[in-house]
Amino acid sequence: GENVEQHPSTLSVQEGDSAVIKCTYSDSASNYFPWYKQELGKRPQLIIDIRSNVGEKKDQRIAVTLNKTAKHFSLHITETQPEDSAVYFCAANGPYSSASKIIFGSGTRLSIRP
Amino acid sequence: GAGVSQTPSNKVTEKGKYVELRCDPISGHTALYWYRQSLGQGPEFLIYFQGTGAADDSGLPNDRFFAVRPEGSVSTLKIQRTERGDSAVYLCASSLIGGMDFSGANVLTFGAGSRLTVL
After folding, report:
1. In 3D, which of A35, A84, A94 has the Cα closest to residue A61?
2. Is residue A106 less than 8 Å (CB to CB) from chain B?
3. Phi, psi at residue B85, to the nearest 5°?
4. Contacts of B39 in chain A (CB under 8 A)
5. CB A108 within 8 A of CB A37
6. B20-51 tens-digit pLDDT
7. For chains A and B, what is the number of CB pairs under 8 angstroms?
8. CA distance linking residue A91 with residue A112, whole number of Å
């Protein structure tokens, strides 16, 4: 079945440095890849998404890249700030028969060191 | 409403009991999703509704779990004969539309979740 693998599970970076989180997906038919941020005790919130017709998308300090051949996509956060500390989840939609099904990775706990 | 509303926010029950969790999606959103999130894990897909019908229920773990959305708006997740392993946060999400056309209208908005604890 559909599967999304995410790594690392935890990541600690110095404030101001960059953070990179990587995900792989199993089904080549997946065409939508959102990223969600979840702060402690809060609900997941969309921070950026990418569709299979583009290879890269950027929104201020956040960028996502997609390699469809290798079936992997990555989140890049530059100039990290304390408020970036949270758990980040990548996700992908299912194959043709279940394209609306969004499958999540297991999450990356990002800590920003002051 | 302005956001996705879930009730109760917390539910403590005893093993073997029946529970219902309610989700009130954003007004006008036709697609509704239920996920389960255990501590330290990502949201686990349970079921997806398009309108009143369950378009994909492949994530329901067993026949103790059932969900309905009779009028295409509010949804109820029902769990029979609860077990300790059912303890988790149950998240509901809605989007304007579902389907294969991911044009921005398919972005999921999550509710705050219902924390279920089975003793």
Report:
1. A84
2. yes
3. -70, -10
4. none
5. no
6. 999 999 999 999 999 999 998 999 999 999 88
7. 61
8. 23
